[in-house]
Amino acid sequence: MIAADIRDQFPILKQQVNGHPLVYLDSAATSQKPQVVIEALKKYYEYDNSNVHRGVHTLGSRATEAYENAREKVAKFINARQTEEIVFTRGTTTAINLVAGSYARAVLKEGDEIVITPMEHHSNLIPWQMAAKAAGAVLKYIPLQADGSIALADVEQTITVRTKIVAMTYVSNVLGVINPIKQVAEIAHRVGAKLVVDGAQSTAHLKIDVQALDCDFYALSGHKMCGPTGIGALYGKKALLDSMEPIEFGGEMIDFVGLQDSTWKDVPARFEGGTPIIAGAAGLAAAIDFLEQIGMDAIEQHDRQLTAYALERLQTIEDLQIYGPLQNRMGLVTFNLADVHPHDVATALDSFGVAVRAGHHCCQPLMRWLEASATARASFYLYNTEQDIDRLVEALLKTKEYFGHAIG
User: Fold this and answer.
1) What is the pLDDT of residues 276-322, one digit of tens each?
2) CA 248, 202, 301 angle in degrees (round to 5)?
3) Residue 56 carries which DSSP code?
4) Which residue out of 215, 226, 362, 363 is catalytically annotated?
5) Residue 195, CB-side half-sphere exposure with 13 Å CA sphere
6) Cα separation, 263 vs 281, whole angstroms
7) Distance of alpha carbon 200 from alpha carbon 208, whole angstroms
8) What is the CA radius of gyration of the chain?
9) Contact 83, 71 (CB under 8 A)
10) How far apart are CA 106 and CA 381, in angstroms?
11) Contacts of 319 (CB under 8 A, 6+ apart)
């Protein structure tokens, strides 16, 4: 497990909530921020605050250097071939919408197919619904196995010569399942389809190598990997990005503007119109440095061990249903307590200082597949410990006892 002193670097975790030490188990929604990231944001605003790619003064030069340095760090962090393959966005949602609104709209024709899974977050589902409707394309779903995982045989059967785009989450934000992205890429590429990967839940926990995965696009969010909110990135193979038109227009993304027509800068600038998220990029760079100092292999091992421990402990609670596979899952456990609404569970746990998520987790089709209107979700990261899981189990047992008396 990762050394306990990692936790000390997160100021927010030192507080008490409702008279108890905070146990934060909602990192799948957003991770907490280490002091170095907070200081990076503070430093930018105190010393370097300026717009980028515009002014020739010292502050402008420093801000531009920090912004482009962050792009280089993201490229190296996910092993992109070149820095130009990284487009800064507001996060995973914006990145996927860029692909769906530009690349998909250009290549899709009536009768073409987009293939996704029922486990997708709405951010990797609704954009494809809209792209399919705009083109008259068909939206198809790879069926789920009984435990919520997918089988490569079903991937082979669902993807056809008419498939143009396959979009899939690497790690499910509800089931925790880790999808076989590399193998799916191979199947998609055999028919000439492109693979779009939702990396919102995977980038924080796994060592990402987009070249090894051979995905065509990969979207990530900084706030789930110890970085600030409002900053993320889209990786795209250079040739594909070069072929795409921007979907947002304004300053700094143009090459020439005439009265009737305009041309665009090369990538990635053409997709970053207006003043970008400069402070967020500086914070994301600090977050990447922080994660790499610990080591992504060590983080993955820690998170796998913690997930296994949580599954083991939670299975000891009677009348608690766990959703998703018990093996090959990462960073979270989703569950329901019999006869108690998950929102009531989350509220009760909060009274003991334990923060979990409750709801449909932006996965309504998956909730219907699970035959659950909502679930509770405990999600873990590098600052969590086995003691946090013990606190969760203890609080769940007290919650179960309370509602058992209340119902009885």
Assistant:
1) 999 999 999 999 999 999 999 999 999 999 999 999 999 999 999 99
2) 155
3) -
4) 362
5) 26
6) 26
7) 12
8) 22
9) yes
10) 39
11) 337, 338, 339, 400
Tens-digit pLDDT profile for residues 233-281: 999 999 999 999 999 999 889 999 999 999 999 999 999 999 999 999 9
Token reading at 400: 């179960």
| Helix, coil or strand: residue 221 | strand
Q: Which stretch of 45-54, 93-102, 123-132 has the lowest confidence by average pLDDT?
A: 45-54
Query: Would you call 215 a catalytic residue per the annotation?
Result: no
Q: Which residue has the tokens 């905070």?
A: 22
Which H or E run contains 151? none
Average pLDDT for 111-119: 98
Question: pTM of the entire structure?
Answer: 0.97
Tens-place pLDDT, residues 23-34: 999 999 999 999
SS3 assignment, position 302 = helix
- Domains of the chain with CATH codes: 4-25+295-407 (3.90.1150.10), 37-293 (3.40.640.10)
